[in-house]
Amino acid sequence: MPSSEAGAVRAAAVSARGWGWRHAGRTAQAVHGLDVDIAPGERVLLLGPSGAGKSTLLHALAGVLGGEDDADEAGSLLIDGARPQDSRGRAGLMQQDPETQVVLSRLGDDVAFGAENLAVPPRQIWARVHEAIDDVGLADFPLDHPTSALSGGQKQRLALAGILAMRPGLILLDEPTANLDPAGVLEVRDAVGRCLDKTGATLVVVEHRVSVWKDLVDRIVVLQPGSSSEPAVLLDGPPDAVLEQARDMLAAAGVWVPGYVPATRARTGAGTGAQTGARSETGTGELLLRADDLAVSRERPRRRGFKTIPPVPAQSGLSAEVIAGQALTITGPNGAGKSTFALTLAGLLAPVAGKVGAGVGLSNGAGSDPYTWKAQQLISRIGTVFQEPEHQFVTGRVLDELMFGPRHLGHGEERVDELLERLRLTHLVDANPYTLSGGEKRRLSVATVLAASPKVLVLDEPTFGQDANTWAELASFLSELLDAGTAVVSVTHDQEFSAVLGGTELRLDSAAAALAPGARQKAGAA
């Protein structure tokens, strides 16, 4: 964007007095007794354990929580002295699930959508679009690139680009780097910093890992769960002062303070030290799944006259083995096809070339190709946790969600209470799954799959949205499952999580590299 158009915006001021919010159907408030002031142009990092109401506050500031018929609100929450519902356009919100923010089918149009709705002049819109796309690292894609062809991490960058193009006075970011590769994390953070430097906008960012944003913000505000009788704000002050004075308290509350990795259960026979990445030698050695020279794509074959045009592979030449009681971790940059490969391995996508074969112990008479299995056969053998938790929910109550699989499989429901307890969901049994926090939704999506007791568990970004305490609980639980003989396949950028599970790593290079002649990638020791 030309510098003459990149001038400062009118930065927004935020004020809360005794503000609280209770979602419909919930007995406890998501946020209770919030008193806080944020000055125009201030940059605030919002911290707190999973379920403390951080996302609820951001949605409230964006004016998208719903009307009074949907829930109970207490106190006041204002932007520039007006209710957020009456100030739409002043705030731009990037939600935890970027999939929900993709509106149009072409990349450039999607980035321009918000600015167009704010009646920005067309010449300025497209200048902003080009700069925003460049800032978030999507400049290699043409403006007419299909948004449906972007990976989850790329869609997250797309959502951020749309917000930056709006030039709001208040930028609200909810876990903006959670699904990004390490290079993408820094790229997006720096893009936000450049935008703030240009515009002077106010920033409120929710992120569990403090180190990413600590040097960009002026202030840290720590929230505690809304069910508490105490005020919502636990700590408030300059970043270094808050981290120095209350490091142990923050760690105990589940905040990812710099340099802190929570203790987890050690794998039986695993190597020493979370940072060594030593391979665990546990497991029965039984081959459950095997991928041979696999090419994968989310596209479907197309008909052109009498010919069938095969899809263009996102990756090719992939080989891997899934062994009972061992972990397989799929890593690599955003857009490399990690999720597509995992979904193909799980029997949810048909291979473009090559094959996925199930061992006799896993197929148990269902046939060797998981893609041909019926739904009931699949979920009792291979359980898949999608990148977007909402895509798995089929009921309106947490307990019903957990009971759904076992009831349809004719299994006992004895695991449900254990899963509720281990994944810290017991207090939410009557809640609507869609009203949970991002971290709670992720744990529920894992629990619903585990309730069916599959032999293979495929997880896409399993630690997304987790505070340090729930992260440790989830990692320890999966470690127990591995020792009990379950195979765990995970797509992740979380190196600490990979180190806890051990096993083997399959690193995918960029899609362009995968399409090179003779390209072949194979899982090796982590």
Q: Keyphrases for this structure?
A:
single chain; 526 residues; Rossmann fold; 3 domains; six-stranded mixed sheet; 17 helices
At the third CATH level, what is the topology name of the largest domain?
Rossmann fold
Q: State mean pLDDT (0 to 100 scale).
A: 85
Unreliable stretches, pLDDT < 50, 5 or more residues? 270-281, 512-520
The CATH H-level superfamily of the largest domain is P-loop containing nucleotide triphosphate hydrolases
Strand order of the largest sheet: 5-6-7-3-8-9
Strand content of the residues, in percent? 15-25%
**DSSP, total strands:** 21
Give the C-level CATH assignment of the largest domain: Alpha Beta
Q: Determine Rg (CA atoms, Å).
A: 23 Å
Shape: globular
Structure annotation, total helices: 17
The major β-sheet equals: 6 strands, mixed
Estimate the helix proportion, in percent: 25-40%
Count of discrete domains = 3
Any overview of this molecule?
By secondary structure, the chain is an alpha/beta fold. It has three domains: 14-90 and 169-191 and 200-258, P-loop containing nucleotide triphosphate hydrolases (Rossmann fold, 3-Layer(aba) Sandwich), CATH 3.40.50.300; 98-167, no CATH class; 288-525, 3-Layer(aba) Sandwich (Rossmann fold), CATH 3.40.50. The chain has helices at residues 54-61, 107-117, 122-135, 152-166, 182-199, 210-213, 239-245, 247-252, 338-345, 360-363, 375-379, 398-409, 415-422, 438-450, 468-483, 495-501, 511-514; strands spanning 14-23, 31-38, 43-47, 71-79, 91-94, 170-174, 202-206, 219-223, 233-237, 287-296, 302-304, 307-309, 315-323, 327-331, 353-358, 382-385, 456-460, 487-491, 504-507, 521-522, 524-525. Strands 5-6-7-3-8-9 form a six-stranded mixed β-sheet, with helices on both faces. It has a six-stranded mixed β-sheet with strand order 16-17-18-14-19-21, with helices on both faces. A four-stranded mixed β-sheet has the order 15-10-13-20. α2 (107-117) crosses α3 (122-135), α3 packs across α4 (152-166) and α12 (398-409) packs parallel to α14. The chain is globular.
